[in-house]
Amino acid sequence: MKRAFVDANVILRFLTKDPPSMAESALKIFEEAKGGKISLLIIPITVAEVVWVLESFYGYPKEKIAETMTQFLSCEGLEVENLDLSLESLNLYFEKNLDFADALLAISALRKRIPTIYSFDQHFNRINGIERMQPGKKTL
Domain tally for the chain? Predict the structure, then answer.
């Protein structure tokens, strides 16, 4: 079976059906993957890009993005690198109202048992188990 990486723009066309001509082409690739003719590889940065575009350009609410992406990433024919990391990050992204990249960072920190994150973003304070340290402040 052929394996290939898939770019965020193909995923976006498939999910948004915009523009229709590109959406139709994207649909064919995902149907081939579902049918076992090809395996499509997706890396976490691609997931982050799709989430960002759905939120910033298309104005989708976080709940819809988290639900849509969770369903999509679980489709047959997709090989999602660190799938569980992406799924857990999507949940945190929605539940704690974070940027997806920050949710990915927080989940990675918790999994690696390095729970300290230097950041100016106070939303990290909402995450159980994460200790946010502000650069420039005393750490001891």
Answer: 1
